[in-house]
Design brief:
Bound molecules: glycine
CATH architecture of the largest domain: 4-Layer Sandwich
Distance between the termini: 53 Å
Structural class: alpha+beta
Strand content: 15-25%
Order of helices and strands: HHHEHHEEHEHHEEEEHHHEEEEE
Number of helices: 11
CATH superfamily of the largest domain: (Glycosyl)asparaginase
Strand order of the largest sheet: 4-3-2-6-5-1-11-12
CATH class of the largest domain: Alpha Beta
Length: 350
């Protein structure tokens, strides 16, 4: 192993084993060049803990491009039928059809790729990566996105699990007493559906390696029971994801419409570019949404938003942060101190 490679390995592996003490003692003895290197780090929404963050860090330590590493991380969650906000098992639209959105952005090449409203393809984040790598486009939607995926060898499959179908049917049949859909009265609650709620759930994952390369990915089944064709913030560059290779990466989960209107992830990365710590930059974007939320159906009696949006960010130096509009909750991070969940900063106290 050459001197510089050994240094890279030491710097990376200290983070990989999650040994804060080991990292600190290595740094104490290290030449200046090592101390200045960013520690690799990965952040994600809480549903990325522990597997997505771990897989992404594994890829970064193995020297894969950061954009591939974070996509490999979220792919685990897309494949998990228990996560009903993403990929296989995601909650469907109002017609019972699962439509997925995803985007990737790479700070090294300054390129992005995304798909919107793609049906029957389990891993939209990987398709987004193909859009970035193998086309001159940024966003492909609907039937065209599916055909593009199939042309690249992605399999068409049913993404609606039994649990998601039952949750959709329960919603559909309870909409109105004036239509012809009757709720199934089984006399007892279905334990399978106890914890299923309508959701904006999503996964975002951003990473930085010891070279300071940054990248991010956001993938989702979007708002449950949405109007067919609705596209949220996740595949919109600047809203659900933004990466500036010279400064940092940020992504978001929560009410996509608010994030689109405020260019949420772009505003986080711009704040980092102007010198803010990623955590403060996330709070800045959350406050911005509070400021821009005025429509009656979106505010409580006290004028504050009746929804939540959460931001996750890393900068090129290897620092990270997460913040939400409302206090409470955690984000996932894997850095020199290990793979763990961390309290969000916030704009408003519950
Ligand atoms: N943030 C996910 C969505 O609104 O679709």
């Amino acid at each position: 192993m050459s001197r510089i490679n050994r240094r890279r390995f030491l710097s990376s592996s200290a983070a990989a084993i999650g040994a804060g003490a080991a990292a600190a003692s290595a740094s104490a003895k290290a030449p200046e060049i090592l101390v200045r290197r960013p520690h690799p780090c990965v952040v994600s929404s809480a549903n990325g803990y522990p597997h997505c963050t771990s897989k992404a860090m594994e890829g970064i330590i193995a020297g894969k491009p950061v954009v591939d590493a974070v996509v490999e991380g979220v792919t685990l969650v897309e494949n998990d039928p228990k996560d009903m906000s993403v990929g296989y098992g995601g909650l469907p639209n109002e017609e019972g059809v699962v439509q997925l959105d995803a985007s990737v952005m790479d700070g090294v090449s300054c390129l992005s790729g995304a798909v919107g409203c793609i049906e029957n393809i389990k891993n939209p984040a990987k398709v987004a990566l193909h859009v970035m790598r193998y086309t001159d486009h940024c966003l492909i939607v609907g039937e065209g996105a599916k055909r593009f995926a199939k042309a690249h060898g992605f399999k068409e499959e049913n993404l609606l699990t039994e649990r998601a179908r039952k949750a959709w049917l329960r919603w559909k049949a309870s909409l109105s007493e004036r239509d012809d859909w009757f709720p199934k009265d089984t006399g007892r609650a279905d334990p399978d559906l106890e914890k299923v709620k309508g959701t904006y759930g999503t996964i975002n994952c951003n990473g930085v390696n010891s070279e300071g390369d940054v990248a991010g990915v956001t993938t989702t089944s979007g708002l449950s029971w949405k109007i067919p064709g609705r596209v949220g913030d996740s595949p919109i560059i600047g809203a659900g994801l933004y990466v500036d290779g010279d400064h940092g990466a940020a992504g978001s989960t929560g009410r996509g419409e608010a994030n689109i209107i405020s260019c949420g992830s772009f505003s986080v990365v711009e704040a980092i570019r102007k010198g803010m710590h990623p955590k403060d930059a996330c709070v800045y974007a959350a406050r911005n949404i509070v400021r821009l939320t005025r429509a009656k159906h979106l505010v409580r009696k006290d004028g504050k938003p009746n929804f939540n949006v959460k931001f996750y960010a890393v900068d090129k130096k290897g620092r990270h942060g997460g913040a939400a509009i409302w206090s409470g909750g955690k984000y996932a991070a894997f850095d020199a101190d290990g793979n763990r969940r961390i309290d969000f900063a916030y704009a408003l106290e519950r």
